[in-house]
């Protein structure tokens, strides 16, 4: 979700790669639905684990910033980058998985998480690029 929002707001201004502590491969259907509401297509998006990034040649030291959205990902990022100089920021975002029972309640939780991420991005990186708003 975060990678799609970043690309929508800032286009090619920055190279973005989403990664997690583990590889979930398929993007959650609720994430796809709430991002589609903003014109962001995630259905073909695949997430990677930090280990897969390294195996596939993404050198973490080439990144300027890692944004961790969970305490577990923050710990993993700190461990993997202990020999590299790059910034790691923790953004405490609502974890919508497992929240709500009915479809609309689940979508509401995912929208809240999506909007929290969007607000954090705007606060951190400034106004979006005109053609992507």
The named CATH superfamily: Response regulator
Largest sheet, in brief, is: 2 strands, parallel
CATH topology: Rossmann fold
CATH class: Alpha Beta
What structural category do the secondary elements indicate? mainly alpha
Residue stretches low in confidence (pLDDT < 50, at least 5 long) are none
The CATH architecture can be named as 3-Layer(aba) Sandwich
The rounded distance between the terminal residues' Cα atoms is 16 Å
Number of domains: 1
Overview of the molecule:
The protein has 133 residues and is mostly helical. It has one domain (2-125): Response regulator (Rossmann fold, 3-Layer(aba) Sandwich), CATH 3.40.50. Helix content is 42%, strand content 9%. It has a two-stranded parallel ribbon.
């Amino acid at each position: 979700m975060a990678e799609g929002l970043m690309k929508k707001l800032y286009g090619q201004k920055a190279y973005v790669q989403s990664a997690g502590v583990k590889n979930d491969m398929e993007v959650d259907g609720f994430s796809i639905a709430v991002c589609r509401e903003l014109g962001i297509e995630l259905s073909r998006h695949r997430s990677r684990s930090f280990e897969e990034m390294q195996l596939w040649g993404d050198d973490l030291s080439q990144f300027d910033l890692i944004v961790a959205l969970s305490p577990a990902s923050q710990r993993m990022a700190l461990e993997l980058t202990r020999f590299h100089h790059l910034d790691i920021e923790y953004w405490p975002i609502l974890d919508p998985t497992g929240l709500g029972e009915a479809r609309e309640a689940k979508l509401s939780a995912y929208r809240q998480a999506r909007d929290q991420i969007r607000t954090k991005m705007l606060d951190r990186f400034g106004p979006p690029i005109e053609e992507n708003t």
